[in-house]
């Protein structure tokens, strides 16, 4: 199973038959090993059909361990020198295992040379940064991706996409890409991509103007509501990050913000998350919905 993992890390895609022939086992055993790898948390992709095969998401990274960059390079060079003089399967296997981690030695958190990005949560162990790296490379080098995407409703789907533009809005990263499933451009929230892998194919990038991208992400005017919020000073910094510092003005002992926002449960949950330090001044119907949601929380606490 470990040999299969090492080989999958080195190759773009390989079939179960090729793995079976290489290691002298049945294809049934290969699929059993693949299932075990998936159970262990390795993001294995299986594509059916004539051009199908088994691959591992490019966002997957092996633990770097205790090697410094100098130790890593010296070890590879030493094993390379030994294997050129002495044929030993153990030496070759050790060298292959180390080289298979090389793709994880790139810059982990950068989106471009002078910007350091870590848009993940406090406990994601750089997984988000790996997805950002793959998405950035796909955009820059015009590489198609196959992604495992989870919608807000919890639905999983495998999509082949041509990544065109990275979008940063509201402290959230999105990927604007042509979706082969929908045969149209779609905006994907990078935080909802479970895994991403290069397909090995490139695409011709379309010239896209800013005005062509729906930065409201499908929220129509009918699905928006104009609100006025009262903000206590203790929550001013968090409110500025949410609403934008230009939309907030001082008003007596508090601050206010009047703007149009998507009218959905996300808005209600966001306001509730401030614990009463952000109040709805207008419209009254939104204020009543906030009250009902707060009562429901209290009843179920």
List keywords for this structure.
13 strands; five-stranded antiparallel sheet; 301 residues; SH3 type barrels; 4 domains; elongated; single chain
Description:
There is one protein chain. Helix content is 35%, strand content 28%. The protein is of the alpha+beta class. β11 (248-251) and β12 (254-262) form a beta hairpin. α1 (2-10) packs across α5, α2 (16-23) packs across α3 and α8 (265-272) crosses α9 (284-299). The longest helix is centred in the first third of the chain and has 17 residues, at 69-85. The protein starts with a helix and ends with a helix.
Order of helices and strands: HHHEEHHEEHEEEEEEHEEHEH
What is the distance, rounded to the nearest whole angstrom, between the alpha carbons of the first and last residues?
Answer: 47 Å
Secondary structure tally: strands? 13
Q: How many structural domains in the coordinates? A: 4
